Amino acid sequence: MNISLVAPSLSSMDMLLKLVEELFEYEVLPQKKEQTQQAIHQLLSNPELGQAWLIEIEDGGEKVIAGHIIISYSFSLEHGGRIGLIDQFYLKSDWRQQGIGTDLLPQIEQHLTAAGVNALSLEVNIGNRGARNFYEKHDFVPRRQFCMMTKVLHPEEVPLTIAS
Question: Quick check: pTM over 0.90?
Fold first, then answer.
């Protein structure tokens, strides 16, 4: 079995969008399809924002797309510059527990290191013991003293007093 990361093009955006929808269903997350489609288009059109890959498996001469991974880029003083955030790492259920993630993480880390990324972070459901064990096995360290928090911003909430 050969496992490859394939950068999607705008023409394969529908396939990526379908995988993202599957992930949202699996994680029971609310999704706004139009917003998600616009975000994927923005990511694929602006590589400085991050990287998306389709996970391609070649098994017995047949190639199938087994999932996707999306990394977004940010900046951290703590880590001395550019960092990556695993925004989504999804494998279809038939492909889980087969060593695919173990094979992919070094490929991803090598690519990100070459892109000047100093650290890689991720968010995992605290109740997903299997995922937490997997990432810890691959040297991700839980930051128990931290709690990731999010506030969704709406354009009308941004104060107009900010000077540029």
Answer: no
CA angle 108, 26, 58 (to 5 degrees): 45
- Among 140, 146, 154, 141, residue whose Cα is nearest residue 108: 140
Report CA-CA distances (Å) from 45 to 8, 74, 126, 156. 11, 17, 33, 26
For helices 13-27 and 33-45, give the axis angle rounded to 10 degrees.
130
Asked if 51 and 36 count as a contact pair (C-beta separation under 8 A), the reply is: no
- With beta carbons less than 8 A apart as the criterion, state whether 54 and 6 touch: yes
User: Tens digits of per-residue pLDDT, 27-68?
Assistant: 888 878 888 889 998 999 999 999 999 999 998 889 999 999
